[in-house]
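Quarterly update from the structural biology core.
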Amino acid sequence: MSRRQKEPLRVVTDEERTELTRLSRAQGAPAAVVARARGLLAVADGESFLHATHRAGRRHGETVATWVARFNAVGLAAVEPRHGGGQRKRYTTETQERILREARRPPDRDQDGTASWSLSTLQRALRQAPDGLPTVSRSTLWAVLRDGGLRWGKDRSWCETGTAVRKRKNGTVTVTDPDATPQKT
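Predicted structure, tokenized:
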């Protein structure tokens, strides 16, 4: 016999049930979101926390109890995973945009000492700029550039994902892949 639930699931609205059903069947959603939606739907259908745990692919009933408590408090936002540990991001959205602006700017040979950006030269430029970031690390730069849709090219520079400069008989042209944006996600 199972224990009494400390915090039972509140009444689930029709819109919430529809969204939970959609998320529980989603092929492209993260596995954690799908599992949480399945577990919450099972509890909403009247199953015990233990059965809901098995339906969600988890082992411990306290997991579903935690999901239920969070769902009662914040609603559908409970299916989205929160910060899972480690250091929180130090840099705000404005700071990340500052890094991307600097990376998209063509380097000045005299001022920056390079013809193309590398992580080290970009780091040096950002640290020396008057409005720069004196403690930015190369790993932070790499993560921000990757999240911003830039990738490392063979010519040792960062370029937009889905674009390439090609040499042709009549000069150079920029080629754009129209399917690059869906491939990034």
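Residues 31-44 form the longest helix (14 residues).
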